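JOB MANIFEST
job_type = single_chain_structure
chain_count = 1
residues = 98
[input]
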Amino acid sequence: MRGTIVMSQQLNFSEVRDIILGELLPYFDKAGIDPSSFDNDHDLLKSGLMDSLDFLDLVESIEENNGLTFDFTNVKEPDISRLECFLDEIIRQNNGSS
């Protein structure tokens, strides 16, 4: 599932979700969670899937492995650890939307 995104195209929710779920596989395995059961409303931190340091590692991994950027100082989503908000924020930041 890992691979660099070609930034000349606009990211879409589905492809970013696939990337993030791919990055989360080690956490799912460790927690014994089926990734297909983890819906967009789940909170990555509150669900116990990861802690705040794991979340920072996830962001770093997303950037390094997939050519995406994420700037915590530019976050507009209030519930950034909720999967859907995290995905929306990655798309917003990488598609150049403000």
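[summary]
Confidence is low (pLDDT under 50) at residues 4-8.
Residues 13-31 form the longest helix (19 residues).
exit_status = 0
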